[in-house]
Amino acid sequence: MEETTPTTPPQSGGDVQLIREISTPLFTAKGWLKLLGVLMIIEGALMVLTIVGIIICWLPIWIGVLLLRSAGSIEVAQLSGDKVQFVEAMRRLKTVFTIYGVLALLALIAMVVAMLVGGMGVFTSALMNS
Question: Which of 19, 21, 74, 89 is the most exposed place for a label (fewest CB within 10 A)?
């Protein structure tokens, strides 16, 4: 039994032009995507040197790889007008934003908890000293 790979139907000239037009903003920023991807991978590699970093170092490395792959996909989409590559680049960027959104929510929750715990400590200390 043969394995078949999904193929995309041939795109019309209008589709190719449309993909090139809508991918232009990301294509012009691909250098920044690559830079941030490399910096995130370096950050993850440096995090390994700390005790807490060993636990979470995979996260910036994963983000860096997603950014580098997204930059590569958007470059192919811009040059060839390939819709699949454009969608793949956007999917990877969506994942990056989702990760950052979850991290921002976790940081906000941790900040509120720290403020509550710190506030209770100050309040308890004030009651003990009075």
Answer: 21
The 10 Å CB-count burial string (b at 16+, else e) for 65-102 is ebbbebbbbbbbbbeebbbbbbebbbebbeebeeeeee
Instruction: Return the structure tokens found at 30.
Output: 């691909």
**Whole-structure pTM value:** 0.80
Residue 21, in any domain of the structure: yes
φ and ψ of 10, to 5 deg: -60, 140
Structural domain including 71 reads 14-96
Nearest to 33 by CA among 77, 93, 76, 78: 93
Asked if residue 54 belongs to a domain, the reply is: yes
pLDDT one-digit tens code per residue, 55-113: 999 999 999 999 999 999 999 999 999 999 999 999 999 999 999 999 999 999 999 99
pLDDT in tens, 22-51: 999 999 999 999 999 999 999 999 999 999
Domain assignment present for residue 29? The answer is: yes
22 occurs within a structural domain? yes
